[in-house]
Amino acid sequence: MFSKKSALFGRIAVVAIVFMMVVGVLTPPFRSDSQLRSRRSYAAYDFHIDPCQEHEDVCDDLANSVQDAVDMALRVAGYPNEDGVEPDRVKAFYENTSMVTVVIGDDRLTDDSIRAREVRVDLIRVDGVWKVEWAGARYRCWRCFYQGWITWPCP
After folding, report:
1. Which residues contact 81 (CB under 8 A, 6 or more apart)?
2. 20-29 confidence digits (pLDDT tens)
3. Residue 149 CB contacts under 8 Å (≥ 6 apart), including other chains
4. Extents of the domains making up the chain
5. For 31-141, CATH number?
6. Which of 36, 43, 87, 137 has its CA 20 to 30 A from that of 24?
7. Per-residue pLDDT tens for 38-80?
8. How far is CA 93 from its chain centroid?
9. Short-list 59, 28, 25, 58, CA closest to 42
10. pLDDT above 60 for 130
């Protein structure tokens, strides 16, 4: 029924997927959402560009959001947005009183290629103000052979 070539291709595909899971490029779809994943599970955002120059509306209330870690993380993730859609999940993992990781997930995207998006924002509190230390995102795609999370753009 199957040729030797298709069997070999199938084995190579399985080994490649397992390898990508091990190095953190892909994460298994069965992993619990209550666990904080490492930064390797996300594609890092490039903060070399000032986001306020690109999106002035995001920075209008930035002075107020720096007082609240979750609000700051939501703004980095693009909330509030012009559609008025709120994220499905917001989880804060406090390491201590001055370090927090906020994970924001949305499974109701109106994009025809991205099925779900999750943004991780690591914040530190310096002089009473929350600052973004690191941020990144990962995606689930509609048109992808792998149904788990990926760190590259959806096809």
Report:
1. none
2. 554 444 555 4
3. 26, 27, 29, 41, 118, 138, 139, 140
4. 31-141
5. 3.10.450
6. 87
7. 999 999 998 765 555 555 555 555 555 578 999 999 999 999 8
8. 15
9. 25
10. yes
Count CA atoms closer than 13 A to 13's CA, side-chain side.
8
Residue appearing with tokens 């120059």: 53
Hunting for tokens 């892909």 — which residue is that?
Answer: 26
**Exposure on the CB side of residue 99, measured as CA atoms within 13 A:** 4
At position 140, the amino acid (one-letter code) is R
